[in-house]
Design goal:
The chain is α+β, with helices and mostly antiparallel strands and 154 residues long. The protein is built from four helices and eight strands; from the N terminus they run ααββββββββαα. Strand 4 (54-58) and strand 5 (66-71) form a beta hairpin.
């Protein structure tokens, strides 16, 4: 049986790595409706939610962006900062007033290079988040756009 996905920061990183990451955090706030980033934009930072919620969305031609997932307390907002070419794969909007820790992507990537153990822990955490988000996106898009009765064909 597979272990559960750990996308929440306190459970995802060992204490020493979590402390190292949090030492470079900057506290930020955004009102509801603020766009944190747009699909296709430059991924130069990321956030961990303290309070509030963020909706991740995907552009759908001829329609409003489809909300793929809503994120809350202690969850990572943004993973594209870690992987070249550092371009956002989704969009993100504060669904409610948001307080978060913000991280400069370049600074975190440098820490990952300097300390391979820290880098592996961060990469593992982000990898689990990516896998979870891809599954959520697939499920949500099937819910929104799949034909009724889709599933096993007979």
């Amino acid at each position: 049986m597979n272990a559960p996905v750990t996308t929440s920061l306190p459970r995802a990183l060992p204490a020493e790595h979590r402390q190292r990451l949090m030492a470079i955090a900057r506290e930020v706030s955004f009102p509801a409706g603020t766009r944190l980033f747009e699909e296709g934009g430059r991924a130069d930072r990321f956030w961990i939610i303290r309070t509030g919620t963020v909706d991740l969305d995907m552009r759908v031609p001829g329609r409003r962006p489809a909300v793929i997932e809503s994120l809350g307390h202690n969850e990572l907002v943004g993973w594209s900062w870690l992987l070249t070419p550092h371009v956002w794969h989704l969009g993100a909007e504060a669904a409610s007033p948001l307080r978060a820790y913000e991280f400069d992507a370049e600074e975190v990537r440098e820490l990952c290079e300097e300390d391979p153990e820290f880098g592996r822990a961060v990469a593992r955490w982000v990898g689990e988040v990516v896998a979870h988000r891809l599954h959520s996106a697939r499920t949500r898009l099937l819910d929104l756009y799949g034909p009724y009765g889709s599933g096993v064909r007979r």
